[in-house]
Amino acid sequence: MRITHKVDYGVRVMTTLAEVASETPGKPTSSHALAERDGLPPGFLDDILRLLRNGGLVRSQRGGEGGWMLTRPAKQITVADVIRAVDGPLASVRGVRPHELADAGEREPFISLWVAVRASLRSVLEHVTIADLATGRLPKRIQNMADKPDSWDARPREL
User: Fold this and answer.
1) Do you know which Gene3D superfamilies this protein is assigned to (predicted)?
2) Rounded distance, CA 89 to CA 85, Å?
């Protein structure tokens, strides 16, 4: 899985909005402040915020005290929600969702392989919330996965 700049920035911005909401509840954060705080390119951030708004994860408030806020508590927003809002489905094969591959002419065992890959992604991304990231603590099961020494080992390319 490749994590795009869009996804990385989207998760970081959502985490920042959760942190700000815990410090000053109900107060929106300007896109300028978000860009500065996370070191993000302002123009790219505007595109990401628009995608997050279209995905129902953030809302904007106009005016001198305006800015961006989460639409629901951070503990109800998963990393998977953010990825879907900014990048689309968690897993696709040539632009087709794994469960739709049979209709696209794919055969077994490939269909089950890609469905299993999607399930594996979901097992992490649907269980880590923006609140978890804002507090700096992953759920125990996810942290245990990251704590395994071989999780940190890069695998060499085979030529």
Assistant:
1) Winged helix-like DNA-binding domain superfamily/Winged helix DNA-binding domain
2) 9
